Amino acid sequence: MGSLEAETAASQWIRAAPTNDWNLLDEYTVSDVMTREVKSQPSRATVQQAPRYMLDSGIHRVLVMDERELRGIVTTTDIVRAIADGSVQT
Fold first, then answer.
1. pTM of the entire structure?
2. Which of 11, 71, 83, 85 is a plausible cystine mate for 64, CB 3.0–4.6 Å?
3. How many Å apart are CA 21 and CA 35, to the nearest integer?
4. What is the end-to-end Cα distance of the chain in Å, rounded?
């Protein structure tokens, strides 16, 4: 299941969840479901390298880090948007 399909399925499940005082999702924290292996690229990585890294790693977003400092996050949507609006040329 792709990221968009998973987000859509999760959104539908949340909307269909019981509205009483007990909700199954309240039983868990984000640390229960988070990805534990940190995937990152340096800010000097090219716009060509980032999607290849994401594809090879099976992820849709990657932390942008220089040494141990978080600079931002780049997503597949960021890259598609940059191509679509002409910010980068293919």
1. 0.63
2. 71
3. 29
4. 28
